[in-house]
Structures are given as C-alpha cells and as structure tokens.
Amino acid sequence: MTGMEAPVASAVLKLAGGKLVSLISSEFASITGVKKDLCELQGKHQEISSWLSEVRDKATGSGAQLPWVKELRNVAYDIDDLPYEVHFEAEKHKKHSDSGKQLIADCICAKPKSFLFRCRVARKVKSIKVKYDKIVKQASDANTLRRNLQMDHPAQSSNGTSAGEPSILCNVEDSKIPRRDEEKGEIVNMILEPNEVQDGHPMVVSIVGLGGSGKTTLAKHVCHDKKIKEHFKDTFWVHVTEEFDLKKLIGKLFQAITLQKSDLHAEEYMLSEISNKLRGNKFLLVLDDSWHNEKDGWDKFMVHLNGGAPGSKIMLTTRDRKVSEIVRSRHIFELGLLSNAESWSLFLESSEWVEDDLGSEYIEVGKVILNRCGGVPLAIKILGGILHQKKEISIWRAIRDSDLWTNKSIEESVFACLKLSFTHLADELKQCFTFCSIFPKGCEIYKDRLIAQWVTNGFINEINGVQPEDTGSAYFDSLVKVSFLQTPSKHFFTEQIVRTMHDLVHDLTRHILQDEVVTCLPNNMTTTYTQRCRYLSLTSCPEKVNRASFDKVHAVYIDNVSNPLYKKLVKKSSYVRSVALQSTVGAPFPLFVVKFEYLGYLEIRNLHAKDLPKAISRCWNLQALLLVSCSGFVTLPETIGKLKKLRILELNNISDLCWEDAPWNHIFYFRRRD
C-alpha cells in the first residue's frame, strides 16, 4: 500500500456520491427493492465518507493500520461505474424509442432486455452493499480508529525567435528567488565565454541539482537573457527524459530545429535537415532533464551537432553530476538549495499570505513544515499553493505531524511534501490530477483536450447553467495555481494552451495510482497484474495478452498504433470512455475503437486514410472527435451526422478535407487549422 488510498477513496466517493443521488431519484429506482438498496448504500457511503474526512491526513502514510481503505477505493470505483452504466443504457434505449415517456409496466412488456438489464444492476447494487458492509465491519469502531491515529482535529478540504519545445521557450515567469538572478548571471557568463569547439562538438555548460530545485526554470531564464538572445542566432530546446533512445532523441532534435513532426520523416532525411539547419549558424542547444550516463550513447548523438558556427554552445540540465562529466562539460554549475529565509519568502509569495496577517502559531508551524522541504523550490511552491486558502490551523498541524516526514533524505522529504499536498488538494481536483498519469513523462498536453477527457471520464459533475468546459477550465487553473501543472503557454503552431508536468509531479501520479495505470505489459502477464487497471498507456504490445484483465479500463493512450496486436488487446467494453492514438503513420483507421460503445473522446494523430469508416456512428456517445495531421483525409462520412452528442470537433492540419458538405450545425466547439 502507498498510504495514498484514503485521499483517493475520498475523492472518488465524493464524485460517486453525487451520481448516486441522481440515480436514486431516477425512474430506475422505482423497480421494487432497488430504491431501498440504493438508499441503504447511500447511508453506508455517507458513513464511510465521514470517517475518511476524519482520518485522511493521519491515514496518509499509515496504510498498514487501515487495510480497509484500499478495499474501499475498489468499491468506490464500482459505485462510480454503476450510475454511468445505467445512465447510458437508458439513453441508448431512449435513442431507439419512437414513443415518448412510458409507464414502467409498459416498458417491461415492450423492452424485456431493458428490464433484465435493470435487474442485473439491482444485483450489482446488492453486491456492492455486501462489500460495503464488510468494510464497515472492519472500520466500525470510529473511536478506536481515532485513538490509534491520535487524531485531535478532523481534517477539512477547502474548495478552493526561439525554436524547439516552443511552449517552453516562449513563456517564462519572473524569478521569485533573488539568488537565482545572480546564478543566472554566472551561467550566462560561462556560456558566453570565448571558446571554439570541445572534442569536435560545441562547448557544454551543465546545471546540476536535485529534482525540483529549479534547473529547468533557471535554464529558461538563461535563454531569455538579453545577452544570450543577442549572441546566438537560434536557441533550441530538447527535453531528453530518462529514456535515452538515440532515434527518438534525433527526432526531438529534428522537431526542435525544423518545427516539423519527426514521425512523418525517415531518420536519414531528419539527419540531413539537422545538418543543413545547423551548418554555419551560431546556436544554443538546451538538453533538459538528461539522465543517460553512458559515454557511447552521448558520443553517437553529439556527432550530429558538429556543423554549427564557432561559438555554438550546449546547456545541459541533470540531477546526476556523472552525466555532466560524461559529456565533458567545460563548466558544471551546482545549483544550491534555498536557505530558511528564502524558503519562507517563496512560501509567502506562492501562498499569497502576508506574514503580518498570520498568527504566531501559523508562522511557527509553517516554518517547521518548510524546514522539512529541504530548501527545494518545487516542494515549497506546491505547498504554498495548497495552503493558499486553508486558514484552519488543524490542517497546518496535520501536515507538520504527518508520519510521511521520515527525514531520511532531502529527496524523500520532497516527495513526502508532494504526497501531503495531494492529500489536501480539493477532492474535485484529485481525479483530474491523477488522470494525467496516462500521458508519457515530458509530454506536452493541450488544455482543451485535457478538459474534454476530464468531461467524458465523468470527473466534472454537471452544474445548472454552466458549461462543463468552463468548470474544467477552472479546475485546470487551480492545478496550475498549486504548481501541479506547470505554467501554461500557447503552442507555436496551433496557438492552443499547452502545459507540461514536472517529472517529480508525474512520478507522484503514478505512485498514487499504482496498478490502476498500466504502462508496460510483460509477456507472461497474469490476470492479477492488471485486474484493477483503469488507465492504459502503452507504446508496445506483447504477443499474448489476457483481454479479461482490461475489463475495467476507462481511458486508453497508445503510441505506435500500427501494431496489429492492439485490436486484440481490449474487447468490446462499456467502460472505455476516452481514446488517444498517437503516431498512426502508415496505419489504416484503427477499427477496434468502434467496439467502445460508450466512447466519449477520440483523438487520432497522423492517420493515413481518406475518410472515417461509416462504423464510427456506432460510437453514439462520442462527444469530442479530434483528427490531427491526417494526410490524404478528404471527407467525413454522412453517418457522422448521427453523432448527435458530438460537441467538439477539432480538425488540425488537414488540408485536403472538403468542408462544404460537412454537418457542423450541432457542434458546440469547432476548430480548424490547416
């Protein structure tokens, strides 16, 4: 157990509770015995939710004392699925019905399948109630629970011209740490130091520091320095990441230099273009978040950087000093941590608190917490964002007294801070945040597309008179406020808002969900390996896959869709709600997506097809359809007009499409960019 089961269960239960209320008041509840079951289930739901609100903070990091919490999360997911399934089954039957509202007796006679479905749901409700009763029995003595956890105060939740990675280089916040301005000046001087070449490639200046210490932020400030802009003709940014794949790294360099998609070109062509673009130009290349510590791999990559004009430089950021030594850095800058005074100043700025407005106990407790953050800016900013509107001293004490503070190392203290920040994140934001675990580390994620996936996965409850996209935008901004999402900026080509997630924060999402997000399938996979999988994020697929292991998958993210085994991976499912398919170059339309009857979001990139299949109309619940860089795409099928729930249609970089005959009249949001 990770110790994060309690806050996750609390968030799922809150969302499921709202859906349960609507289910009780529906026609479905009129079937004999079901409404009673639902009301009893609601009572159990409220009882355990109340306990969770009391023990959530102390339960974090104390999972061994609360074995029932993990089981509760599983049942909460079952509750969350139930109203979703009932709602869409009812919509499907309504869609096929020619008549208006019918009496239940008439409905039973006319639609026995519908009646049988509802009876099956009634049995599911009773099964959930049995599981709930077992959990309640395990956690029935709330007073003993409080004593074991030494809980004095219940926790409360408040609602509260540059190229390459252009969204990173085009936007940078003003520095909030005075010391960083001085350090920026030192690094700028190192980079501008007269020097020709170093071992055949441009001179390297490395920034070394702990995760979250501000290496990437400092590198961005260096790139925006006036002297740097005047000295270099071009500045390129490549996010390297932990996976050092030479072909992928060449593709990233190609994209950074040419602003073209790498998956559309052969490696030979990309290397030729890289050479042509760099030849004779004085450039600065940033290799951000570098992990690879083997000389051979770096030598094979660096050889492609030899064509620049004299004075070209490389700036590398890494957590490991060994990496900077392997690339033979001319200068290695060790990024220091913040002092206690600097930490407190950054916390006040991030939380927007004024010290004079805080009582003496808040200041005392706050400084104890910050000392445990180890002077790491990321941890301090996230904690400040979380405590922005939390004036209850009980919450500050709960964070200070948490069992997560092990003091074994700065790295562990930083991660403890991130876990505590998630614990105190507003419940309605928790699933929106952990959903981001489905994206690869370092991936640029579009704001509008992320919100559309939140909506279709049911993370945003409907509010009268408010569009779900507006609520989602507020959620997005809240996650930016607490630094769980890094500062958004506009993409250089689409002008849409994109964001990235810090590697440590991305690690947190995977840590929280554990086996609920599957990113790699072993060849000898057992059923238990993925029995709780809800998010599937894959770049490869083994030959033998147990499809039954993915019955509860809700969201799918797949790269390299040309792999024919994917169509065997997920069987017909009523649970899959969103699918994003990347790098479909050379592959036909992936027909396996039409198996997902309740699919609400479909994004396809680089598809090679003239049109969509008529079978797309089977996805009658489709609300968002995004086609990006699909070459040869000339028409939309007439059957797309049957998708009456389609609200968002994005056609990006599709120049051959005939627009005149397309049925746009019921689309809420339409974006076209050739």
Structure description:
This protein is α/β, with parallel strands linked by helices and 674 residues long. The protein folds into four domains: 5-149, no CATH class; 166-334, P-loop containing nucleotide triphosphate hydrolases (Rossmann fold, 3-Layer(aba) Sandwich), CATH 3.40.50; 360-423, no CATH class; 425-674, Ribonuclease Inhibitor (Leucine-rich repeat, LRR (right-handed beta-alpha superhelix)), CATH 3.80.10. The chain is 43% helix and 11% strand. It is built from 23 helices and 16 strands. The chain has an eight-stranded parallel sheet with strand order 9-10-11-12-13-14-15-16, with helices on one face. α13 (295-302) links the parallel β3 and β4 (313-318). α2 packs parallel to α5, α2 (34-59) packs parallel to α6 (142-149) and α15 crosses α16. It is globular. The model is unreliable at 59-65, 101-110 and 142-162 (pLDDT under 50).
Number of strands: 16
CATH architecture of the largest domain: Alpha-Beta Horseshoe
The helix tally amounts to 23
Low-confidence stretches: 59-65, 101-110, 142-162
Inertia-based shape:
globular
Q: Give the amount of beta strand, in percent.
A: 5-15%
Number of domains: 4
Helix content: 40-55%
Estimated structural class? alpha/beta
Q: In what order do the strands lie side by side in the largest sheet?
A: 9-10-11-12-13-14-15-16
Give the CA-CA distance, first to last residue.
49 Å
What is the name of the CATH class of the largest domain? Alpha Beta
Report the radius of gyration as a whole number of Å. 27 Å
The largest β sheet comes out as: 8 strands, parallel
Going by CATH, the homologous superfamily of the largest domain would be: Ribonuclease Inhibitor
CATH fold-type name of the largest domain: Leucine-rich repeat, LRR (right-handed beta-alpha superhelix)
* Oligomeric composition of the shown chains: single chain
Domain NB-ARC: 182-348
Keywords: ATP-binding, Leucine-rich repeat, Nucleotide-binding, Plant defense, Repeat
Domain Disease resistance protein winged helix: 438-508
Family: Belongs to the disease resistance NB-LRR family.
